[in-house]
Design a protein that fits this description.
The chain is mainly β. It contains no helices and eight strands. About 20% of the residues are buried.
């Protein structure tokens, strides 16, 4: 899937990956009790952060990376009916290997 968003500078566009809606014991978790997802797939990346001396620091992340990110570090946007997150690269905690 390609996104119509092109993030600027050190921002990325992430599609949240949903977790199972049942517990191991078979209990269905209602939407109101679910935590915000913190795992997602990188859909687009910016060119990098401009440093104080005017150079651009390249992005560490690339399209297709599966990442773990901070719960409250993103802006939610809807593009073509799809919920996406826009966040800074620094809001990513880890990349799944």
């Amino acid at each position: 899937m390609s996104t119509k968003l092109r993030p600027l500078y050190d921002r990325i566009v992430v599609k949240a990956l949903t977790e199972d809606q049942k517990t191991a014991g078979g209990i269905i978790i209602p939407d109101s009790a679910k935590e915000k997802p913190t795992k997602g797939e990188v859909m687009a990346v910016g060119n990098g952060m401009v440093t104080s001396n005017g150079t651009t620091r390249a992005m560490e992340l690339k399209v297709g990376d599966t990442v773990l990110y901070k719960k409250w570090g993103a802006d939610e946007v809807k593009v073509d009916g799809e919920d996406l997150l826009v966040m800074r690269e620094e809001d990513v905690i880890a990349v799944y290997a």
